[in-house]
Fold each of these.
Amino acid sequence: MDAARGGEVRAWRSAVPDRGSRLVGAGFWLLFAGGLVLIFLPLVLTVYLSFFDEKLIIFPPRAYTTQWYSEVIPHFASPLLTTLEVAAIAVPGSLLLGVPAGLALVRSDFRGKGAIATLLLAPLTVPLIAVGLAVYLFAVSVEEVTGAPLAGSFYVLVAGHLLVTTPWVVRLVVASLVGYDRSAEEAAASLGARPLTVFRRVTLPAMRQGLIAALLFSFIATFGELEMTLFLISPGMTTLPIALLGYLKYHIDPLIAATTTLQMVLIGSILAFIDRFVIRLGQLVR
Amino acid sequence: MARGARGEQGSARLAGALLGPATVLVLLVLVAPLALLFRYSLDKFDPSQLIIPAVTAENYISFVGSRFYLDILLRTIEVAAVSTALCVVFGAPVAYRLARTTSRYKSAMVLALMLPLFMGATARTVGWMILLSHGGVVNLTLRTLAGHSRFDLMYTPTAVIIGILSFNLPYMVLMLQAVFERIDISLEEAASGLGATPLRAFARVVGPLALPGLSIATILCFILAMNAYATPVLLGGPRFHMMAPQVYVEFASNNNWPLAASVAFVLMATTIALAVLANRLIPDRYRAP
């Protein structure tokens, strides 16, 4: 009886917030708001600045304009082209390498599988600045021995980007196959389908979502790669993130804001597409 | 029996064929180059002759013995530690609200957090440069409000910490959101039903359950911060040194490849050592399996 009353009193006390818990509540919302500001304020400002009719950042601007958007592609045409050329090889290439590997990691069982999985995902964890330096020095050494002109070549740049994109493909293919019920495959096999037919008609359609996600994520990974690429470019062969970095060292103006905004729109639409039609992005973080 | 064995052999061969190309790629473009990088870090360097083949720990010894390089390492650790701590402080409330919301726009919110993650550090820094640069938003606001004309955050360690914090925050929020979501809300309801204040319920029930996930998220953010490149270069300016940009400076400006290789290895070794140490400091029962 006493205990029950005690509980009642305590429940009543917690229902009416005292000063201390109000303070805690206020602190919570303050940090919450601060967190959102830290994440989104720079992005919002970038979009805002991209419409300024000024050559520099001057608040408030004389007028607003969309002219900077028409100057983005002419100004960054060459690095953009290189970035897209690299992506055009690295994305399909990483699918060719990563999809079979992901399949084997899920479907087969052998000794050392854990080690292979760790190895294949390692490029996601090794600092890319070290990888870039290492790949460049390796290319120089191979060139010294074989005479093949590798250092600063397009092939080495693409090989480096393949290294960055392939683990994404492996990870997403594994994620799309884990927990997949194999009974449909077994049914197809028992009805007389050959293994390749089973793969083509049953397994592949089941992996469709994972494959599209892998394609798009590997594109995003190669499109934004900066640290490793720093070491693999050569005069006349620069990628977009590096051109942006070089530009930003000396200017901060509406043109760069417009470029960043376009990038935001491109990546935002890719992510929205994945989220809507392929795989709930929330599931990937888990 | 014999067929079974042959079948197993066949499937092992198939697995080998499927895994082979990707494994060769990683061995050829990651493992072999890193091994060679380590070999380079043991060479000597002379400004006129460049690389002199040798097997010496000279680069590492001079790194540890030099005030200049040691300061860069310590500054990197300091910036990474402070930005990661702030990341937890600001990230946890956002993650908690996101995990507990029943809004139909929740997936749009997750999407909004993923967008900055995939934008790349250079693009993300543009906004902070607008805010912090001389004549930028913060500078202008302070000048109007307080009359301070010489308050520049640009090219200060604070600017770099803010930039890295902002860059890593979405990672922290998304990882912690997944952690909080796995904690059954009925546990909190039980705690408050028994009279616990929200803070007490959090400290005694949710906190301990979230600790393993929180520790992983914290360590990952710390690793990212240690390796930051674009943010320190752009917000710290030419006279602010952190480890990852220093690797590039030694390579490109000083042409000292052996030292660049050593700086890269010191960075990797320190990061791994601190991550392992942090994991050891967590009490066993809270450690992630």
Note: The two ends of chain A are 46 Å apart (CA to CA).
Amino acid sequence: MSRLAAVLWIFSAALIAVVLFVLKYEVQRLERELQLVSRQIVVDQQAVHVLKAEWSYLNRPARIADLAARHLHLEPLSTAQIVEIEAVPTRPVPGVKPPPPRKFVNAERRP
Amino acid sequence: MTRRVPSPRRPRRPHPAERGVAPVDLMLLDGATSQALEAGRTRLIAVGLLFCLAFGIIGLRVVDLALLRDGNEPRLAAEAGRKTLMTDRADIVDRNGIVLATSLPTASLYANPRQVRDPEATAAALAEVLADVNPVVLAGKLSSDRSFVWLKRNLTPREHYEVNRLGVPGLDFKREEQRVYPHGALLTHVLGLVDVDNQGIAGMEKRFDGELRGGTEPLALSIDLRLQHILSEELHGAMTAFEAIGAAGMILDARSGEVLAMSSLPSFAPQQAGRASEEARFNRAALGVYEMGSVFKIFTTALALESGALTLADGFDTSEPIRVARHTIRDYKPKNRWLSIPEIFVYSSNIGTVHMAMESGTEAQQGFLDSLGLMTPAAIELPEVGAPMLPSPWREINTMTISFGHGMAVSPVQLTSAVASVVNGGELRPATLLKRPEGATSGGRRVISKATSEKMRWLMRQVVLQGTGGKAAAPGYLVGGKTGTADKLRDGRYSRGSRIASFVGAFPMHDPRYVIFAMVDEPKGQKQSYGYATGGWVAAPAVGRVVERIAPLVGIKPIPVRMEEEGEESDLMVQASAEGFAFAFE
């Protein structure tokens, strides 16, 4: 009985020692990893910082305007292109005379 | 530990010395043996207790470390998450978060010439990858007998990479920071400058130097970069078209007082600050003070209507020029008849405006201009703010000339915020370059009543519909405003050749959101303007184009008006009474 207890005690002590060392090395490994990741975060943050500046530089309104003029076949929206929904005529129903369309124009014309 | 303590249930094993000895003999043990045994037992117990205590303490300490003390892990975990990049100087961003000024790490190249094996070859290789360096000078530096020489400060990332790729021993980099303005000359007068040691020496960089140097949070300005670009481009267009020497402009949020754009031309890129002319360095929008001309009639009219001295139905005979002392006040384009208040305003009659100012009186005029913030320097955040120039003493003749904007000089910032207070319902909010939280409109100071503000809006709208500001019209956006043309003082005399042409407008006029000011310095009459270089020909079209371009950006819906209502507006002029006006679409 007492021998069994002793064996159990020794075994558990050995087990705990092994577990402790495994844990310790695991923690050390994780700490190294954390350090690496932190360093990588700083590097990435620096890169993001530089890229943000570059993004702002590439998005200069004058440059965008130039690119749009060269590559897009678009024009600035004129107010004549915007109408109220009421100004759109309803779909004609056969046999029913459509109501006269309401005329909308802009408040002023360019002199 | 408990093992050492004999169990009470088990009979005590006889000691080897006791075996085979009768219990009786035990009693006969002599004193010395018994004493030694007793001493051994006591020591055993003492040592056992000591061990117990030590193991107990270690146990407690383990529990303390493992369970009770907050270990390293939470701190490490938190630290990993909140690490922000530390730079010497925080960024400046616009209201939409676009970077306007930032500090970028740069590498500066230095060498230890004692470790450089072949100075000639190294210099030649470096000259190939570095811009503007002289290989002869480099070779000289590299063959010197020192242990440290700068080769080039602030390399570009590409140069940094190329030098690294050369792999020459004896070269090394030192990390430095350089202030970078991605938008160049667009915002120089607002942002300001830093010196070589990254200390703010002008503009917002100077005003918020402490905050920028200490913090990591970017400084958010009220500027909207897109609006800034549009304003700057249109001002530049007007400046070149009329061969002017300069221009200035502002876009102000009429409700909050935030400056969305502030431009002063000519400008310069911060990188070339050393080469910029005095003219380019000068901030015309905040530091410059100018006699604004007829734009001031807004204030004269507002005061007359607010004080109750006059109503929209009143009027004056403008056929006679006013002669005071040695001066004669005339109209630029005389109508030579009785004009109603709206007509005086819309046709920009100096004579009529002087009569209006005389109805209000000098004291009321001073008080009103002061309440609009025109008598004290603008409270904007820039360090470069111009103080207004006021007449001293303030005589009756000054009251008369100031009524149409001569004899008193104010900065565009002052003027624009004053106009904003007239059109926004009557509350003055000091112009600010810092972004305000959405919907924060508190802190206004009432300068005129809501009713007067509405009349002024209608009057300013009529200026664009049928008066001098017709070229500021942007179809659908209900622009209103007032033109101004002032002759500049040259050697104490007003000269007709050099003048300031300006226009201050707001839109949409039934509920103004934005106030826009444009000013062109010394425009020359052009063929396409039939020789005119007035506010209506020079500055008003620029404001109209700005409105047309920014309205879709800021999400203002154009207002269509039914065709039948178009013809009615011209009649309103003469019939206008205190109540009898309305915006055409209402």
Note: Chain B touches chain A through 47 residues (CB under 8 Å).
Amino acid sequence: MDKLLLLGDEALAQGALDAGISGAYGYPGTPSTEIFEYVQHSKEAAQRNVHRTWSANEKTAMEEALGMSYTGKRALVTMKHVGLNVAADPFVNSAITGANGGLIVAVADDPSMHSSQNEQDSRHYGRFALVPVFEPSNQQEAYNMTFDAFALSEKYETPVIMRLVTRLSHSRAGIVRTNQLKENKINLPANPNQFMLLPAFARINYKNLIEKQKFLEKESENSKYNVYHDGKDKSLGIITCGLGYNYVKENHVEAECEYPILKICQYPLPRKLITKIVDECDEILIVEDGMPVVEEWLRGYLDNCLKIKGRMDGTLPRYGELDPARLRTALDLEPYPIKEVPTIVKGRPPELCKGCPHRDTYYALNEAMKEYEPGHVFSDIGCYTLGFLPPFNAINSCVDMGASISMAVGAADSGLFPSIAVIGDSTFGHSGMTPLLDAVNSKSNIVAFILDNSIVAMTGMQDSAVTGRVEDICLGIGVDKEHLRVINPMKSHHEENVKIIKDEINYNGVSVIIPRRPCIHIVAKLRKQK
Amino acid sequence: MKKDIILAGVGGQGILSIATIIGFAVVKTDLYLKQAEMHGMSQRGGAVESHLRISDKEIHSDLVPHGRSDMIISLEPMESLRYFPYLKHEGWLITNITPFVNIPNYPEMEHLLKEIKGHKNSIAIDGDAIAKEIGSPRSMNMVMLGASAPFLEIPFEMLEDGIRAVFGRKGEDIVKKNLDALNRGRDFAEKHIKK
């Protein structure tokens, strides 16, 4: 059969399509975006009419997927690791309701924070919510596991996390498709109270969820993804999670690894296999990409039972993604000779594109803010976060989706003047509307910029949920029409824009300024549509 | 057969098209391939890299190990040096020499060339100039792919097929120009090796 050359993200998506999903839900976020986009652009998905419209944020996506699962059909929901924080409420409660139709929560973590604010590990969420986790170590596994994850989800009526990391999400390899399942038909839950989390029912469901765990553990013990490879030298046993296995193997290309290796790709942890390797070997090295999750569990709080090496004792770095060289050091193998980077090589950080509308917005904002000390501008997650870098140095914070407006409100409450928020149109749709409502209700003295470039630019041009409706939304929330200003972020409008910004800074109340000009990457496309 | 390649450049220069074309060629064979790339904020005007691994045996790591790369193909001279820690001492450094200057402290060109030529096996080629000569400035990346072709151990026709497949929907003219760019790059490299 022909191989398809797919990213890890795309392999998971193809797996989900072949495993018979009826809907994909999600919000863009690097490195998860391509999972959803693959479904969105799939001809097959179009023929089958699989749901594939971006949701407003991860929480609505998770709930919509849960709604599809309620009806008995299979659903996939995709997000980046910090997106799962946004969806945490429905996610944790979906473990209590359980699933009806198969439900996969595909989460892409970002060790080393290539494109993120933190490197939280979604396996923590799995354990926290008592939800099984699959963690593929390669692209073909990402495809294959999707079938097993849906089967497990339906067998035990539980959502399942599929955890990817950047390096797998964004790496291509040849994939062979194996099977194609039919979609489920509508079939409502046999127990009409399954999704009714009133305390009386929630207690019953929670008890069931806890009882399920021993069966899920048994599934892990028998899983084809958790494999014990024996080795002659028992002075060390290596436990690898997900991609960690590849880096160990990479350092044993010439000769087989002499130590036993337990490759783990399905959780809860396979207790029997862990016990076996721990009993057989003098010392254990734990290799996991992301946080030392398994290492912490095995060490326990007192850390006095086992000889364990890993990220917590410095054998591997405490943070940052793994790579073959880091494993080489951990395995006490001779490092390969390395050429240094010549000192003349300088850093080349990302920048706002030439011609980007955000540039003109920041030039105008900076000029209007000249008379004040620095430290007044709260920003958000998007391309415009690059306004922090020279020559702009225009913003002072970037925390989480929507935090620009809420932090500006809190700072204004403290007496900071002026207090400015800068947020993109899609981020506004994701999590900016509720803090703007707070601002209106408490008559905060803030100026909120909603940078409307008609697209989700940073993640690669996805549709924005609020395109064409930003003013209506602001007015509906209660922003005064007089202080809802649309400006054209162009050099030719600079003086006029500076004046408008100054006027709104001096207005004591909520002002919204919408600099509107499409992202330069979609201008040609928009012209064609006209 | 085993080739570990680092593709380097600045966001927007077209390293991903190179990776796509090689990937297209390789996936039709029995060879294994892994190709790791960067997406998201890291793309915009900043340094970008892609790791491309081809082998007749199973490939484990998605990343090329430090000190093990057979080849750096760089679309920009300063970027070619950034990935030295990956390159084997006898590995090939194949780089475009037209600088992409978007930082205030960009080094002097002569210093860059000295470092590039100081590496044992290097090919420095003005990919931008050749692409302009053939009337297709945007095909610089295909000139560079052509310049690396003699070292790839992939049949040249398969790279040509890759170009036809990837650029096909953009029309016959674009395909022709990119094929031309590929050939010009290869010719340059072959002459250089003979010297």
Note: Chain A has a mean pLDDT of 96.
